[in-house]
TrEMBL record:
Transmembrane segments: none annotated. This is MerR family transcriptional regulator. Gene3D superfamilies: 1.10.1660.10. Residues 1-66 form the HTH merR-type domain. It comes from Antrihabitans spumae.
Length: 84
């Protein structure tokens, strides 16, 4: 977790808050340390951007979830269009 926080320029408490808000569910090492995927780090960075812009944590999480769902829907549409 410390390394992830350092990479993102955030505190470990910030990453824990994203975990508590259920935006991120990091894996765990055998020693119990949180392990973040690159995808999760991108989500955390986006959350930091939104929060820095004045968005509340819960609203930022909802925005990120909706952005992710929209991106997935667009990928599916593109795939279906190519199949035609």
């Amino acid at each position: 977790m410390g390394h992830a926080a350092e990479i993102l320029g955030v505190t470990q408490a910030f990453l824990r808050s994203l975990d508590a808000a259920r935006l991120l569910t990091p894996g765990r090492s055998e020693g119990g340390h949180r392990r973040y995927s690159r995808y999760q780090l991108r989500l955390a960075a986006r959350a930091r951007e939104l929060i820095d812009a004045g968005t509340a944590l819960d609203s930022a999480c909802r925005i990120i979830i909706l952005e992710d769902q929209l991106a997935e829907a667009r990928r599916i549409n593109d795939t279906l269009r190519r199949e035609d």
